[in-house]
C-alpha cells in the first residue's frame, strides 16, 4: 500500500469519526462570528444619548441600583463603556449556573434592561461551540481533541489534494470547480477546492481554538514565544485582610482615578470584591469589540496599594512581551476580530467551508460505497442468426 493510500484511509476514517463534531463546531462558529455586530443592532439598550459635561454616577451607586434588580445575588463589577454607551453590571455564579447583566444609564441610574444571558440565543450557541451542549468537563476535551483530529484532516487533505504533476489540466482540477460537470463531480470539487483556499485560515482557527482546551498545546506555544517561560496559573493577587480598612468606597476612589484619563473610545471595568482576601481589578479596554488591547491592574481593597501578578493577563498591553501579547490576542485571532470586520468575514467563510467539508466528504464516501455494492448485470448471450 502506497503512502498516499495510507493517508487516504486515515483521512477517510478520521473524517467519518469526527464529521458531526466538526460540522457543529464550525457552523456555530459561523453564527458567533458577527455576534458583536448583531447585538449592537438588536440591543438598543446598550446605547444612551451622551450628555455634554454630564456627571457619571460612581460604581457604588450603580451597583446598589443593579443589585435591586437581581435580588440575593452580588454584582461582580461595573463596566463603563465608550462615550454614548450604557453601563452594564454583570451577575454570575456556578452553583447554580446563572448569568445576568443589568444595563443602566450612567448619568441617571435608570434601569434600561435586565438580560438573562443564560437564555440568550448566542449564549446557547456558544455552549454548543465550546462544549457541544454537554457538561463542561466532558464537552471541552471532546471539542478540543476533536479539533485536533480536524487539524490532522486538514493536513492529510492537503496531501491528497496535491497533484502528482503540475500541468494545466491538474491546475484546473485543483483550483477550479467544474460547475457544468455531473453533481457528483461538482460535490467532489466543492470538497477539494474551497478546502484548499480556506486551509491557512482553517488551521489558524483550529490552533487558536485548541489553545482554550488543550493545556499542553497552549503551554508549548507560550513557552516557544516567550523564550522558554512557563505559563503560570492564573491567580488574582490577594488583599491583605489584616490591614484596617482606610476607605469607605475603594471602588469609587479607583474609578475616579482612572475615569479622568480614560479615552472616550475605551471602556473601563472595575470588579467588586466579595471576600476580604479579594483584590479590586481594574481593566481599560482601548479597543472595545476585542479583548487583547487591555491594561490590567489590581489593588488591595483595604489600602489601595497596587498589586502585581504573573502571566499575560496582568499589566499594561504596551509593556507586555511578544508571547504575552500573542496569548492575549488568541481569542480575537480566533474570531477574526483582530482584523476588524474584514477579519470576521474571513473567519465566517473559513468556518462555513469547514462546516461543508464533512458534508461533501460524507457524500463522496457514500457515493463510492454504493458504487462498490452495485452488482454488475449478467449479460445473456443472444443466439446468432443462421
Notable characteristics:
386 residues; eight-stranded antiparallel beta sheet; 12% strand; alpha+beta; 8 strands; single chain; 12 helices; 2 domains
Descriptive notes:
This protein is of the alpha+beta class and 386 residues long. It has 2 domains: 3-35 and 130-229 and 340-370; 49-106 and 236-309, no CATH class. Helix content is 50%, strand content 12%. An 8-stranded antiparallel sheet has the order 4-3-2-1-5-6-7-8, covered by helices on one side. The relative contact order is 0.13. The mean pLDDT is 92. Keywords: Membrane, Transmembrane, Transmembrane helix. This is PepSY domain-containing protein. InterPro entries: PepSY-ass_TM. It comes from Larkinella terrae.
Helix content: 40-55%
In the predicted model, the low-confidence regions spanning at least 5 consecutive residues are: none
Q: Rough shape? A: elongated
Oligomeric status: single chain
Tally of distinct domains: 2
| Largest sheet, strands/sense/barrel | 8 strands, antiparallel
The overall strand count is 8
Mean pLDDT: 92
Beta-strand residue fraction: 5-15%
The strand order across the widest sheet is: 4-3-2-1-5-6-7-8
The sequence of SSEs as H and E is: HHHEEEEHHHHHHHEEEEHH
Using the CA coordinates, give the radius of gyration: 27 Å
The number of helical runs is 12
N→C terminal distance:
52 Å
Structural class: alpha+beta
Protein name: PepSY domain-containing protein
Keywords: Membrane, Transmembrane, Transmembrane helix
Pfam families: PepSY_TM
Transmembrane segments: 12-34, 142-163, 194-214, 345-366
